[in-house]
Design brief:
The protein is an alpha+beta fold. 50% of the residues lie in helices and 17% in strands. Helix 4 packs across helix 8.
């Protein structure tokens, strides 16, 4: 009897130990799963902005003129003064860029500098040599009348939002209509942008409405210059039902 009791006790202990081990393994597995989910959430965090752009643009051969025009516009929305440099064969493209910015009142020329650039190099024997002189030109520009506002693609889409909201084709939007668009939340505006937008609207407090030029300026305040193009297009499509390149109109109703 004593031996049978001893065997039963040992068997019971083994079962309890096994159950305890299973609980520990289950708890460990749950903790691991929670950690994995946390890591997934971190990985899913979306970057809203492109990297900060320097206020110096060097025109090269790897991009078309339109690339530099767009880049200069984005920089001028942030910076008051910008330097644009061209050298050698790229001087002609640089001058075209400057003319485009002047014509669109994005920038004004404050200074033009020219010169020759000679760079050293080492030959196969390790001797220092001087390369061929290359002509360079440097434009110093200040922000123009329209330098701080959205342009081209972004402006066309903001105009489309204005026209869709202006159901009566009155040419103006009331403050209630503007507020209903929720630009600050949808375009992920920061507190400084929101504060500036409220100060801008206070200048129209007597009329309590915005015409199209005023609406574009208002949108320019709330749409960050470095907002990624994909984020901007996703907001247009998902929040405003606006058709974007590479996608279809997405209406909730």
């Amino acid at each position: 009897m004593a031996e049978e009791t001893k065997k039963e006790t040992e068997a019971t202990d083994k079962v309890e130990n096994a159950e305890a081990t299973d609980k520990v393994e289950n708890a460990t597995g749950a903790a691991t799963a929670t950690t994995d989910k946390t890591e997934e959430v971190k990985e899913e965090k979306v970057e809203l902005y492109d990297e900060v752009l320097p206020n110096r643009i060097i025109v090269g051969r790897n991009h078309p003129l339109s690339f530099y025009v767009d880049r200069a516009r984005r920089v001028f929305r942030i910076e008051e003064q910008v330097y644009i440099q061209g050298r050698g064969d790229n001087i002609a493209t640089t001058c075209k860029l400057i003319e485009a910015l002047k014509r669109q009142k994005i920038a004004e020329i404050t200074k033009i500098s020219t010169g020759m650039n000679v760079e050293p190099y080492f030959n196969s024997y390790g001797d220092a040599k001087w390369g061929q002189p290359t002509a360079i030109i440097l434009f110093t520009l200040k922000r123009g009348e329209f330098g701080k506002f959205i342009a081209d693609y972004q402006q066309r889409k903001i105009i489309e939002i204005f026209e869709n909201t202006d159901k009566d084709s009155s040419g103006v939007l009331s403050f209630d209509q503007v507020d209903g668009l929720k630009f600050d939340a949808r375009f992920k505006s920061n507190q400084e942008q929101i504060k500036e937008s409220k100060e801008f609207l206070s200048g129209f407090a007597d009329k309590k409405e915005l015409d199209l030029p005023g609406f574009i300026k208002f949108a320019s305040i709330l749409i960050h210059p470095l907002l990624k193009a994909k984020i901007f297009k996703d907001i247009l499509s998902n929040d405003f039902g606006i058709e974007v390149s590479g996608g279809n109109r997405n209406n909730d109703d």
